[in-house]
Amino acid sequence: MSDPSQACRSATFGLPWPLLNDGLFYNDVVRASDSGLTLIHFYSTKHKNSAPPKGWLQRIQNGQIAVDGEVIRDPDTILRIGSKLVYHRLPWEEPEAPYFLQILYEDDDMIALNKPPGLQVLPGGLFQQRTVLTQLQWWATKPTSSVACQGPHPVPVHRLGRGTSGILLCAKTKLAKTRLAAYFADGTSHIENSSKTSVDLCATRKVTKIYRALVTGIIGEDEVIIKQPIGMVQYPGVAKGLYVATPSGKPSLSKVEVLERDVKKNLTLVQVEIQSGRPHQIRIHLSFIGHPLLGDPLYVIGGHPKCFGSENVEDNFAQDGLFLYFSCRGFLRPANPVPGDCGYNLHAYQVVLSHLSNNEVIKITAPLPHILQTKQEAQEISTY
Asked: Which residues are listed as membrane-spanning (predicted)?
């Protein structure tokens, strides 16, 4: 088994973010069933999750919607079948985010990055430009980049939560993307189709992911196997729904190993090996057993969010455009905690996988934040 991480730890890249992003453009084509509707009725019914009627009215009057290439400000304009509609979401200042990325490993097929906490992997929500994907795109255009002449830019093949740091695998070719995605999907399918223990399953996987986390409370057992299913529920501020612990969810498996207990601070340092890849799995599983991650703004004991309270979206969306995105330092966040909120301590510490070309076993390690080091590790680093 090779551990190539040490050789690449000095390699970094990243460009500062511009003040504003480029905005977004959303396209629609009027179908026969929508022909004859007014512009305001079309948007307020077809895209009611994006904004209430008051919000769409302001967007139309601001000149943010074009019909067949012509900006239309009359909300009562009648639509005809086949017309092409474009809604322009105005540029906005995204929340602060780091931009430097460290290369832990690189070959002809993939790159392993050390993602800092606070940086989103793929575009979504308020973060459309300040993402790992954007930095990879920019890096690939530099003449000095190792991927400048190899075709498409590298793309992440899995996700880490915005507040999670550590190893992120990115594919440099379409074939590598397909194979790496199959590695991750294969592990999850084993959980869904097998009743084996996590130890038995470990030998069948082509990729193993190990995390470090700091949780509240003292975990009594030295090792805990968590098999709680994870599913989705409706939640204000998250359009597609929120992942939570629920009996009706999909099978999920985490193996938790206690590294240190701090009785005085009522904290436990753990190492977690996940054998399925559900969104926010570690946060949900640890909170499900009564030990939420220290500083987690969303998940509490039981694997559920702190609150399901509704928020008043009428005013939020009615002020779309200049007022909404250029007040309050450029953005307006949801009233309730959302999955992208940071503050917890979770680090993708180690990945072990079979090389895509020669099946050699590769172990990639990301340097641990001080707060997630054992006392012995911290002492060894300080004397290094």
From this structure: none
- Residue-wise pLDDT tens digits, 316-363: 444 454 434 333 344 556 678 989 999 999 999 999 999 888 889 999
Report the DSSP beta bridge partners of residue 88. Answer: 25
Cβ contacts of 369-376, under 8 Å, gap ≥ 24: 369/165, 369/345, 371/214, 371/345, 372/212, 372/213, 372/214, 372/269, 372/345, 372/347, 374/259, 374/260, 374/269, 375/260
Tell me the DSSP string of 34-45.
GTT-BHHHHHHH
Could you give phi then psi for residue 167, rounded to 5 degrees?
A: -70, 130
Q: Please, are residues 40 and 152 in contact by the beta-carbon 8 Å criterion?
A: no
**250 CB contacts (<8 Å, ≥6 apart)?**
192, 229, 230, 231, 276, 278
Q: How far apart are CA 195 and CA 120, in angstroms?
A: 34
Q: Is 5 helix (H, G, I), strand (E, B) or coil?
A: helix
Beta partners for residue 267, in sequence order: 216, 262
Angle at which helices 53-61 and 39-46 pack, to 10 degrees? 130
The answer for residues whose C-beta is within 8 angstroms of residue 224's C-beta and 6 or more apart is 255, 256, 258, 289
Residues 6+ apart with CB under 8 A from 175: 109
**DSSP calls for 108-126:** SSEEEEEEPTT-BSS-BTT
pLDDT in tens, 154-176: 999 999 999 999 999 999 999 99
Q: What tokens does 241 get?
A: 């729904």
